[in-house]
């Protein structure tokens, strides 16, 4: 089945220690998104790629970076995680920027 | 930024009851999407709506794109325990490409 895969499902990192979360998709979608979701809140868009074009949301901290080396993979890099960055990180894909988005299962990040 | 008003915030119902939740916007939307999220998992797309007045079903779920293009509702008929979760409405307005989310409706079902 075509799907969005996120690894790892659970990640523990230390305060200030860089961490990378990964996402892959078999849907061959053009757009890949990264969202941050905190408890009892809706997902918050951090940035997205349309193909190789990177689109950052205005309020996304510089501490968050992303890479998309090819159509299938997209990475979220947190350069210096703070305690406030503990959250669920969701990857999503869509065929175009105005269509349905399909989410992966998420990575739960804990910062100690 | 743009906000979606989703209501109710939470619902506590008995198994077998029907459920209705809705989202409203102050601006026109081009798409309405309804997602369900289980604890510790990503949102799962339930229904996608693209035309004003469109009524779409997915099993026991029915959703409609409001005629004014500023609202949508989701109905669940004959609820079962596995319907428990958080339901999010989301959509694209005419201003941009970002998917705008409601704050979610938490559904609890007692058997």
Largest sheet of chain A: 7 strands, mixed
The fraction of residues assigned to DSSP E strands of chain A is over 45%
Summed over residues and divided by their number, the pLDDT of chain A gives a mean of: 96
Uncertain stretches of 5 or more adjacent residues of chain B = none
Report the biggest beta sheet of chain B as strand number plus sense, adding barrel if it closes: 6 strands, mixed
The string of secondary-structure elements of chain B, in order, is EEEEEEEEEEE
Q: Tell the overall outline of chain B.
A: globular
| Straight-line N-to-C gap of chain B | 40 Å
| Cα Rg of chain B | 13 Å
Classify the secondary structure makeup of chain A into a structural class. mainly beta
**Strand runs of chain B, count:** 11
- What oligomeric state do these chains adopt? heterodimer
Largest protein-protein interface: A-B, 23 and 21 residues
Low-confidence stretches of chain A: none
Question: What level of helicity do the residues of chain A show?
Answer: under 10%
Q: Which descriptor suits the 3D outline of chain A?
A: globular
Which helices and strands, and how do they pair?
The complex is a heterodimer of chains A (112) and B (111).
Chain A: E1 4-7, E2 10-13, E3 19-25, E4 31-37, E5 44-50, E6 53-56, E7 64-67, E8 73-78, E9 87-94, E10 102-103, E11 107-111
Parallel strand pairs in A: 2-11
Antiparallel strand pairs in A: 1-3, 3-8, 4-5, 4-9, 5-6, 7-8, 9-10, 9-11
Chain B: E1 4-7, E2 10-14, E3 19-25, E4 29-37, E5 44-49, E6 55-58, E7 61-65, E8 71-76, E9 85-93, E10 100-101, E11 105-110
Structural write-up:
The complex is a heterodimer of chains A (112) and B (111). Chain A is mainly β. Helix content of chain A is 0%, strand content 52%. Chain A has no helices and 11 strands. In chain A, strands 2, 4, 5, 6, 9, 10 and 11 form a 7-stranded mixed sheet that branches. In chain A, 34% of the residues are buried. Chain B has no helices and 11 strands. In chain B, the strands form 2 sheets. In chain B, strands 2, 4, 5, 9, 10 and 11 form a 6-stranded mixed sheet that branches. Chain B has a 5-stranded antiparallel sheet with strand order 1-3-8-7-6, with no helix packed on it. Chain B is globular. Classes of the chains: A mainly beta (112), B mainly beta (111). Chains A and B meet through strand 9 and strand 10 of A and strand 4, strand 5 and strand 9 of B.
